[in-house]
Amino acid sequence: MINRKVSAHRIPTVKRSVRCRRQTVGMGPKDRGPRPKPDARAQFLRDLKTTFEWRGDRPNPRWAAHPTAWWADASILRRLGPALAEPFTDLQPTLVIGPQSRGTFLGALVAVHLGVGLVELRKDPDPSADSERWLTTRSPPDYQDRNLALGLRRDLLPSTARALFVDDWIDTPVARPWQQGSWSTPPPRRGVAHR
Which of 38, 162, 182, 186 has its CA 20 to 30 A from that of 138? Predict the structure, then answer.
């Protein structure tokens, strides 16, 4: 004898459609083909802009650039060195020069990406020993109208060096890579990855 009550409580089965559904993963709006890949450079620029600030007080007309949120974002930090180095890879620099302090920081990111060394350009250089040889110069007026004394240790700059100058602020570009022979001309005013 069949118990009709038990059979009435069976778990219903879902009837599957005979037709297969079209796969829509990776499709664009209205399923009209693949979505374009996001532009990595445009996304990087958006990330930089959203984390950058100008800081200052209302009555003070002098506001300061405040990019330090870039250093706190691992995604931006990872892309910063390659992005700064990219326009200059064809020059095949053998070392990077970065002025204190942000220039040294950014220069280190660029140098690691390029696989070359970093030389710190000191502001108001002070040799630690009388026997140290330093190359020194004075800068043209910077963004605060100061003429800075700049220098680096001579033994860190080989005569065959092709140096890329990296700093955090662009003011005036330089048309060629720094080489030891051009050291007699003052270094460029604050700028990012000058050549």
Answer: 162
Q: 135, 183 in Cβ contact below 8 A?
A: yes
| Domains annotated on the chain, with CATH | 81-184 (3.40.50.2020)
Q: Which residue has the higher pLDDT, 58 or 112?
A: 112
Instruction: Output the CA torsion 80→82→87→90 (10° steps).
Output: 160
CA 15 to chain centre: 56
What is the Cα–Cα distance from 33 to 22, expressed in whole angstroms? Answer: 12
Residues forming beta bridges with residue 9, ordered by sequence position: none
Between CA 47 and CA 89 the distance in angstroms is 23
The mean pLDDT value of the chain amounts to: 75
CA angle, residues 77, 78, 82, in degrees to nearest 5: 105
Q: How far apart are CA 149 and CA 139, in angstroms?
A: 7
* DSSP code at position 34: B
User: How far, in Å, CA of 172 to CA of 157, rounded?
Assistant: 23
Q: Is 128 left (phi over 0), alpha (psi -120 to 50) or beta?
A: alpha
Label residue 153 exposed, middle or buried (CB < 10 Å: 0-12, 13-18, 19+): middle
